[in-house]
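Hi P.,

Sorry for the delay on this. The queue was packed all week, but I finally got your sequence through. Input first:
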Amino acid sequence: MRSWQALPLGNHQRIPFLSRNFYTFGGYIISETMAIEILAAPNLRTSYMKMVKHLRELSYDSLLLNFPENLEPLVRELVENKLSYKAFIKEVRKQKLVPEPIDGWRYTAEPLLKSLEDLKLRRHKMECYCYKDTNYTLISADVASKIAQLTLRASITRKIDVEDWKNILKGGMKHKREALEKEVDSIHEKSSNECSCPSGLDGEQLERCLIERGRRVKLTNIEESYHPTPLEILEERLAKGDVPDEEAEGLIVDHLEYIKNYILTSKNRDQAYYQWVYDKVPSLRPKIDPEEIRHLDVLLLPNDI
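Then the structure:
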């Protein structure tokens, strides 16, 4: 178990009056036996395909999915092969468990959802849960809708109200922090001795919060060289404090260009993102094959559901 890290380097000591399975680290009581591996991935279909490959190679008793908790009953039916994937998506739509249009969510989640039955066959005792806060799923969709409206307005008027952008992003981030606490509680309660836990780009925050609850955690980034999009960069900067209007406006302009020249002209999200990285991030260009970018159009969702 030496590969599992609770915190960056520091002093720790065992606690004799508890047991040999606990020690203190950075002021926290850490369990040696109950380990959680967080698999952090960006909102890209190819990243979730890599995540599935990683999950097939790991050993774990429980799988905690970064899907809304209200999906858990249906996900369990999907895992147990009591529900086909097509029937699962139809039921999600019927019960309105994910904000419409759900194809944006489905585009990324589908590789993981379709792999669940196979993962269960490989690990008969595997328990599967969902841990994302359901209310925040709705709030996040609302924030995304408001950002889309600002994007459209700025594209038409060529004017940017920086404060509007900041306020919407800050509001979304506030709700995200509140949801994170609930999600950490859910993971802490549902996870078993050996647990795999897919996450988005908030994997590092999950790791820190779980450590505070005494859990032994390993964070694995599915994409080692991921470069955040302009809006993700702005959110990162705002999380550390206020951002000067000039800097914020520059990132918003970059976002508008990303939407206009890449998202709207590409077949799917992955193709747009990797073409943008290839064009705009010279340090990562040697790691990207332009021919492979062109072939990413095969990742389009089928229209049969």
